[in-house]
Amino acid sequence: xxxxxxGVIGTGVMGTDHARKLAGKIPGGRLTALQDFDAPRAAALAxxxxxxxxxxxxxxxxxxDVDAVIVCSPxxxxxxxxxxxxxxxxxxxxxxxxxxxxxxxxxxLRAEIAIGRRLVQVGYMRRFDPGYAEMKQTLxxxxxxxxxxxxxxxxxxxxxxxxxxxxIIASSAGHEFDAARFLLDEDIxxxxxxxxxxxxxxxxxxxxxxxxxxxxxxxIDIEAFTDARYGYDVRAELVCEDGTVSLRPGPPTSLRxxxxxxxxxxxxxxxxxxDAYRLQLERWIASILMGAPNEGANAWDGYMTMLIIEASLAxxxxxxxxxVEQPERPGFYR
Length: 334
Ligand code: ISE
Prior knowledge:
Layout: E1 4-9, H1 13-23, E2 29-35, H2 39-49, E3 52-53, H3 57-62, E4 68-71, H4 78-87, E5 92-94, H5 102-115, E6 120-122, H6 130-140, E7 147-155, H7 165-184, E8 188-194, E9 208-214, E10 219-225, E11 233-240, E12 243-246, H8 269-272, H9 274-290, E13 297-298, H10 299-318, E14 322-323
Parallel strand pairs: 1-2, 1-4, 2-3, 4-5, 5-6, 7-10
Antiparallel strand pairs: 6-13, 7-11, 8-9, 8-14, 9-10, 11-12
Bound molecules: (2R,3S,4s,5R,6S)-2,3,4,5,6-pentahydroxycyclohexanone.
């Protein structure tokens, strides 16, 4: 294969962003097709980008000009569509989360193992962010000693009405769960959640504060607050035995208000993680050209994050600390 021809399912916020990036030339890749249940929306973007719009997902997945698929449809449809792409033997990048729940995520693992090829990547793009990569390298170099605390802050300016307290854990904090596993290079074994009052700006959802522990004992705290008004402000600080490593701020674009400490932040995640999204596509395409997706979060990572999400939801509902199950990793994912 000299070029990866890509079809995108879902032309909402992220589908449109991926499609525009692909159409704006990512080496080795070419956008060929789009699909959305909102057919006029897909058709309008297809016209703008000079590609075809297909009526249904099966037609896109089976299309001879589609070598690989990006699934950006609503979260509840991720797993079913991912399974169809796996069955077609094509690589698939599934926007996070991998599935709507554990059982579906396990179906993806079984399907990938049965077909015997790594086909799935999950769109946890922070793994490609230069700032996170730098933190991981510093930690891995041993210069700062063992990690004791990982403090994470995830603030959105404003969020859509459908974002519930549960989705703040599954959809927003899910990024932090994956980033913690990535940075620390180990699993999360327990989680507990405490919620403050809702902000008067979003009275129907509670911000979430999550405290977890990694297998070797690092304590991770996560503030997930999706209605912070002033901008998209993601931070991380690793406190280690011999030093502290902070996440370098992203590009200051589309400023609305500065954070209290004067840091200028972007309006949303697309601006903050623009480089990460681009690198994620570049490396995904390059790895497919070399044989199979082999970077970023694989299906096993998506599954482990799903287990943290489910344990955190249980912890939130019960007000207790909940153990995150640690299933044995199949040889296929080692
Ligand atoms: C959204 O789905 C994302 O993925 C964003 O990165 C996150 O910041 C936001 O809170 C989620 O709702």
